[in-house]
Give the backbone structure.
Amino acid sequence: MRAITLTGFGGPEVMTLSEIDPPSPGAGQVLIRTVAAGVNRADLLQRQGHYPPPPGTSEIIGLEVSGHVAEVGDGVQGWAVGEPCVALLAGGGYADYVAVDAGQVVRPPAGVDLVTAAGLIEVAATVVSNMDHVRLAPGETFLVHGGAGGIGSFAIQYAKALGCTVAATAGNDEKRAVCTELGADIALDYHDDWVTLLREATEGHGADVILDVMGAKYLDANVTSLARLGRLVVIGMQGGVKGELNLGKLLAKAGTVTATSLRFRPASEKAAICARVASEVWPLITAGRIRLAGETRFPIAAAQQAHEWLAGGDNVGKIVLTF
């Protein structure tokens, strides 16, 4: 089968299209013939050597795919060869075939093109699991950084569907317009003093929940922006891994700072998250309450260009590799 393998760690040039043996499904697993694979920031980090897969997981990059069931392993029920599906992975997505635990495989949302569906499961699972983790509730104020990206564009709409006031940061007028079109009540330029602007827009309240992909760079600003009893959840480290936390400031707000990684959760947790996405989120997409924020497609042979496009900062929505 074709797969993107690495000649080392570094820039996009270390990725090469290779021919390798396909995997076989183990007990409780499904083998998927890939139609498309989502491209995520975590993929760039893995390529650079900063985000190794969990032990025992495929070294091939790729955290989500769509495709058709090619084979079912022992003990798997509810799936037949040829059925369309999407899957949340710990690795292995940039390949013609991938084997994954059946609990992490779900049917795509009704009416969504299978290629487009490849870019939905990872963002949906990330947003839903983290919003459950910090107990985002109707009527609260929610802030997401990178509002025009894959995570941000989904999080804006999911929070609006929950009945929240939504704020988002983005880097230019076009991206802020995207955030507003998707439902953000407040669209902030992260080049400006967004902390002050958020306070002003919320009449001094701040954000009850912040979903952050930046990590260390935004740590102090995020804590400053929290409302009393506010919760900051960090899911990315684009701005570094080591920051200074003012505990006095956090204590005064009775705030919470937490960080999660979907990739390293046990299979049982991932299965529960995927089931929740299928039952709670897919109907929102089918009903039009969560719209797809656009996508850019690259053929698998152009994986290097896909990584360059994502790293360049101009992307809106999701990037998918097509097979």
